[in-house]
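Review session, final week

We close the course with one last complete record, chosen because it touches almost every idea we covered. It is Diacylglycerol kinase (ATP), a protein from Aquirufa nivalisilvae with 287 residues. Go through it on your own first, then we will talk.
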Amino acid sequence: MGLEVQHIAFLINPFCSKRTKLYAHWVEDQTKLHAKGALKLTMFFKDWPSSLQAFSQVWVLGGDGTYNFFANAYPNCQIPVAFFKGGTGNDFYWKLYGNVTREEHLGIILRAKSQAVDAGMCNGQLFLNGVGMGLEGEVLKSMNAIRAIGGLIGYFLAAIPQLFLFKSFRIRMCLETEWIERQVFLCMVFNSSRAGGGFHFVPHASIWDNQLDVLLCEPLSIFKRIWYLPKIQQGKHEHISFLHFQQAKQITIQADRELKAQIDGELIVSEKFEFHVLPSHFMVIVP
């Protein structure tokens, strides 16, 4: 009886760097070496397939923006998904795999243990990581600094000017059926826990709990904004009195003005943001 070969679609960020392309080919070579003919890898650098029906797994190489593009291009994907690190922030990758070497990570992927993870929906768009309204959207306008320098340092450089300039805003928020109204400096809804290349905004958020996590920050002086930024980055802020954490499956946020927002590193603009959780939506290969 012949060996059953699994056909894998390997989707790579079309705008990836030469270094990421080399990594993709390393993955291809190592897979051939270790899978011993059991896996057939088809690489897509530019034109991703219109359907994944012909494949038994899909591997995605890029950053949080690429993962977001994948989730919205294949919102009903039923086959196991593996994520490979190839971005500047790599926050959702970290949530799944932590700080492992590329050899350790590939070993995890080849073992192919899968588990269902939640996703979120905001204004009709899927997200895996989270949505930051207001300040986060303004920081995204400085994305060139983040992309050029990368990760945490780039995020700090983009965020610091906005800590001086950004003005708080008023929201009406509905959690399930309960409405509240307040003035906020930060307003975030997360499926996962980390964004911005290493900011642990909601440290205990889980991608397996069938809930979305809300972080609200009261208006702050410029001194407090700067003083507490490193604490938020490290995830040492859950006890701070002006920060409020809540969970819900369905959330509506109505702002008093049009806001820029980042959704997994991609920009959207609106006055109203409607969220709901998508429980156990994607099967993901995990450790």
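Two points worth writing down before the exam:
The radius of gyration is 20 Å.
The chain has eight helices and 14 strands.
Good luck, everyone.
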